[in-house]
Structure formats: C-alpha cells, structure tokens
Prior knowledge:
This protein is mainly alpha-helical. It is 80% helix and 0% strand. The chain contains seven helices and no strands.
Amino acid sequence: MNNSNWKIDIIDEIKQLSANLSESQKKKYQLELLEKLINRIEQFSNKNCSKCEKHKENIENIINQIKNKSSKKEYDNNLKLILNHMKEDHGLYRVNEKQNELMPIGLSLGLALGAGLALSLCLVLSAAPLELGIPIGSGLGLVIGMTVSASIGSNMDRKNREEGKLI
Ligand SMILES: [Zn+2]
C-alpha cells in the first residue's frame, strides 16, 4: 500500500466495514478507538517510529479479523500490542484508562479496609451485634476504597487529557 495513502485507504475500509456492523458490534470492536490509533500510527510513522510502521500491518490484520469475524481474543491481543506501544513509547493513554486501572485496586483496598472497620466496630461497640458491625464496616470500607480510587483515577485521566496524552 502506498505510504501516504495508507491512512486514507484504511479509514475508508473501516467506514465500509462499519456500515455492515450493528451498533453493538461497532462497540465490541472499538472502531472509534481503532480510528484514533490509525491516526496516531500514521503520525508517528511519519516521524520515523519503526514500531508504528510495523503496527500498520497489525492494523491491517485487525481489520481482516473483524471482516472474518475471527475470535475476539485474537483481535484483543493485536489491539493490546498497539495500545502497549502507544503507552510505553509515546506516553499515550486511553480515555478513562487510569480510572479503570485503579478500580480493582480500590476494590481490594476497600475490602481490606472494610474488614478492619468491621472488626473495630464489633470490638469498640461490643454491644453492637456482629450482624450490624460487619455489614456497616465492610460497606463503609468498600465505599471509601472505590470513591478514593475513582477520584484519583479520574484526576489522572483529566490530567492526561489536558496534557494531550490521550490516544
Ligand atoms: Zn510508535
């Protein structure tokens, strides 16, 4: 494929492909993200990033995988390779990436905190029955863990957006 026309041709191909996909399939294959990645790959391969140049082929494979309705896993693996390269070599992130990344951490910290709180509540309010101390403590811990991680994550995401670090 002619270099300068690569992006135009490939975006064109996606447009045609997307006309034959349902809304849920478009979401499933993250076509919007794919288009953004194509723009970035074009941008950086023009700046002599040899990995981006190679990922052009990967994008073509991905499009064929959508066309052939190959397994979603294969598609996800290919997409991940490109996303990792964008993050590691170009410092670019996905929308809400940090928030999603921190969520499981917030959840496990919340659970741990909740267990501690539940225990303290049961000890401190020795009069309070376990049936009260455990749900209140663990609920509170979870809420705190999730709220804190969500707010840290969304702050990091906002910073990424403000600094033009989104794909
Ligand atoms: Zn690159």
